[in-house]
Structure formats: structure tokens, C-alpha cells
Design goal:
Number of helices of chain B: 9
Number of domains of chain A: 2
Radius of gyration of chain A: 36 Å
Helix content of chain B: 25-40%
Largest sheet of chain B: 5 strands, parallel
Strand content of chain B: 25-35%
CATH class of the largest domain in chain A: Alpha Beta
Oligomer: heterodimer
Distance between the termini of chain B: 65 Å
Order of helices and strands of chain A: HHHHHHHHEHEEHEEHEE
CATH superfamily of the largest domain in chain A: Histidine kinase-like ATPase, C-terminal domain
Order of helices and strands of chain B: HEHEHEHEHEHHEEEEEHEEEEEH
Radius of gyration of chain B: 21 Å
Number of domains of chain B: 2
Shape of chain A: rod-shaped
Number of strands of chain A: 7
CATH architecture of the largest domain in chain A: 2-Layer Sandwich
CATH class of the largest domain in chain B: Alpha Beta
Chain lengths: 356, 259
Amino acid sequence: MHPLLTPIKRYGIYLSAWSPLAGILIYLMAVPGKLGWRDATVLIVPLCLVYQFVCLSAWYMCKAAPLQRTPILRTRFMHLVAAAIISYLWVELARLLAYGLAQFPTFRGLDERFAPQTTVLYGLGFLVYLLSVAAHYVVLAMEDSSKAESRALETSILAREAELKALKAQVNPHFLFNSLNSVSALTSVDPAKAREMCILLAEFLRMTLGLGEKSSVPLSEELSLLHRYLAIEKVRFGARLQMQEEIQEESRSIQLPPLLLQPLVENAVTHGIANLPDGGIVRLCGQSHSGRVSLAVENTFDPESTPMRNGGMGLKNVRNRLEARYGKEANMRVSAENGKFRVELSFPSHVEEVKS
Amino acid sequence: MSKKDDEKKNDKKITALIVDDEELARLVLRELIQTRPEIEVVAECANGFEAVKAVAEHKPDLIFLDVQMPKLSGFDVLELIGAETAVIFVTAYDQYAMRAFEVHAVDYLLKPIGRDRFEAALERAKSRLGQKLPPAPDLAAATRPPKQFLERIVVRDGTRVTLIPVRKLDYAEAQDDYVALASEGKKHLKQQTIASLEACLDPDQFVRVHRSYVVNFERVARIEPYGKDSRLAILADGTRLPVSKAGYARLKTLMDQRL
């Protein structure tokens, strides 16, 4: 819908902007020309009423030819031709009106007195149309910027939501109950191990809570959380769970959103290792070079096992968080080949944080 | 083995099987069971395949069955072992499974397992020994979250277990109390009604074309008229299946949806 028509108030403002224009037109018709004030008013007021409506049509032309995306010559040509045609039609309408009025005895001879003024009217119509084009471009630009603003606001809200959701999903009830079951088993056969497990669990939970409050952590901190997690799962799965790590020394200090890798490692265990009767390997890789970080979590998996029940919510969350933080600079690749499931993340190592 | 001697001494002993893929989880159950002299653990299994084999071998009265296990879940095992054995499911946390257990009055234990809860489940199971369980496919269907359909079908032939991914299932044919599942040129028999199988399959992929046939839509090459009011579905491999009037209507609806 046309932006000047929708709230009726705006249309009122537009109309009131037209009244001085109409005044100027009447003046130009009456004073330098041979038309009297009365003749000029009777002629110009209806013409202006028509023309203000016609000028609104510039909106569609402007929308069809946005300034940034249309070659400037084409835009100019298009609007000039439109102005020429429209003002010509307008002048023809004026002539018709003058002729019609001249039929009444009061306005006898109006058409003849008007005839020399047609060029002036044509020129003015041309200019006014172009003015309306310019005004419409201004309105368009204003709309764009307010849209961009609300979009930016929306993305920042989405980013925040994704973060929150991701954090809430961290401590999986399955994981907790299974770990507690392991502890309860160990209390009779290996009390020392049971105590160690309790401590691991407590440390893991404390770190999860603590990390969630920060916006970035060094990789080394995320890794120590993962080590706790894997140590706990190792108690459950025993020899079925094996771990490998290839972390480049320099990359340990790079910053990343907290708990970014944790859901990936959890997936690797619950959807990979847990589905393999003979277990498998979870591998963590980390590198940073030329301003970019690349991290990977890889695990053995059973290609015949049924896909994960929660439809890959963990993966989706990680993707959303990466996008929210790094935008197009971030990259996430998921592959499943030769019995290996691999998630690779890559993002710039130094980036100003999105302020919200 | 001492098992035979035990049976002679006390033929009322209840035989039990422990099935869990985690060593520590089996250990907890073993400890709890050891406090009850009337129960004897005849075997422990770390996965569903072992469990199916052990059931055939030992014919236990009672199984403690973990739900989440690799390859074959607890429900798959239940489907494969028949209804003669009392089952106590063991799970950490599974909202759908817990609801299904309640609906079907199957005993279940939540990890970590408390002694009181264990004793109560045991009493209930004992009182129900010899009674028939609810049909396994029904229970399995009830534990499936809404809008999720079967990904694969488990079939047992003696002690051999076969997994048929549903995308490889060509068609299913009702044969008395069984369904014959045709997949990759072979036929597998399973004790299930065709209606309950149909209910577990994605209706956008499988069509009941006839009272006795469910067909994989992807396999249908063409439909030919056959006599009055009935038709034949010709599958990609040349198999000809009868299509009833109602079956043809269902096929047409699906075809229109796909177009």
C-alpha cells in the first residue's frame, strides 16, 4: 500500500503541502498572465486536486527503480519521460477544463486567455512531478532505514534467544540420571571411584553454570569442561569410549562462545558411541592460522542406526549461535562418511563482539 | 553347571536375565537381585542381540531390560522375544516410554534404581508371571513420539535378528497371524498383524492397497486394470500385487499429493 495514503493523517499532511503549491500556481496564472484571480482559482484548484493524486503514482516508479540497484542514467531517463508524459496529459486536461468553463457565460473567453499560459503550466507540472519523485525517494529511504533497524534488533534478539536456549539445553537429564546411576553402582564396588565421580560431576555442573554467564571463553577453558564431561561418560561406557585430541598449542588461547563445543561432544557420545556395541573414538581438533580458527569434533558412528530423536537440535543450536556471533564470517560443516561423523566449525579468531 | 543343581534343590526359583549395555548398570541390578534368594540371574547381556539369544537359550521368567541400547533397543528386544517372559524395563529418562509403561501397566524402573522401587516392581512382576504381556508392537508404537514413524523393522529367525530399514521394504503381505516382509528379494516372517504394522509406517510412503497388502509407494511402477473393479500394482521388480477398490482410492490420493 502507498505509504502516504495508509495512515489517513499522512495524507492530510501531504494535501496541506499541496496548498502553497496551488497558491503559487494560481499566482503565476493570474498575475503574469491574462487570467484574473477568479479565473485562475476556478481553473487551478480542480487541476491541483487531480494532479496531487497523479503525483502519488511516482511511488510505484520509485519502488520499481530503487536508487542503489538501478543504473542512474536509466532512473533519470525513466522519470524524465514519465514527467514529460504526465505533465503533457495534465496540460491537455487543463485545456479541456478551460474549454468547458468557457461555455458558461461567466467564464466566456477563458480558454483563449489561458492558451498562452500552457507552456508555463507544462513546465510547472514537469517540475512538480519530479519534486514528487524526489519526495518519494526520501520516503523510501526512511522506510528502508527503519526496516533495517528493526531487522538488526530482531537479529540481536534472536541471537540472545539462541544463546539462552543453547545454555538451557546443556545439562541433559539423561546424562545426569545415567551418571547418578553409575555413582550408585560404584558406591559398593569402588567407593573411591564413586567419590571421584561425584567430584567430576560437581565440577562439570559448576563450570557449566559459570561459563554460561560469560560471553566468551578461551578454548583451554572449554576443553577442561569437555575433559570433565568425557571423564564422566568414560566411567559409564568404559572401554567403549576412547578419546583423541589434536589441539594446536597456539589455539588454546583463542576466544569462543562458551559451551559451543559441549553439545557437539555430547552428540558424539550419545548418538555415536552409545549406538555402537563395541564403542568408538571421539576426536577433538583445534587449529588457528591466518586470523581464523578451525575446530572439529569427530566420532565413530553406526550408519545404520536411526537418526537422532531430537532432530539434531544440538547442531541447530550451535549453528545459530555461530551465526549470531560471527554472521557470514562463520562456517559450519557437517559430514558423515566412512562411519565417521564430523562437525567442523571455522570463524575469525579476533572479532568485535556484537553488542546487544 | 550349578544351574541344574539349583533347579533340583529349589524348583520355584525365578530365573532372570539382565540386559544393559553399561557394565555399571548391570552391576547395580545384580547387587539388588542378589539380595533376593528366590531369584537367580541366568545370564547378563550387553546388547539386544545377546539378549534375544539368551532368551531362546535360557527361557528366563523375568528380564530386566534397558531401553536405550545400541542397534536393538529394549522395545526391539521385546518385539522379538514373544510374550511369555515378564519384562521390567529400566530407563534413565524417557518421557514417552514412561507414559507408555503406565498405559500398558508394564513394570519399569528409573535409574538410579532405589531398593524400595526395585522390590515393588519385583512383586508386581512376580504376581504377573505367566500372564501375557501387552502386544509388543502396541507398546513400541505408544513409546514413539507423535509424528515419528518406524525407521527399521526388526525380524527374528531362530536366534538370528535381521534389521530391515523401511526404505528397503518393498511390500508386506498378511499371512494369518504373521506378516511377510519383502525386502531385497527376500521374505521375512514376523508375528504381527498387518494393521499394526501399517500404523507404524509413514502414511506418505506406505499404502494399504488391499486387505492383505501394504506397499511401498516408491516401488510401484504402474497400475493395470484387472477384472471388474479391481486392479494390479506392478512393482519395479515385476511383482504383481492385487489392489482393491478402496486401496486404489488411497493410492490415488497419495499420487495427487505427490504431484
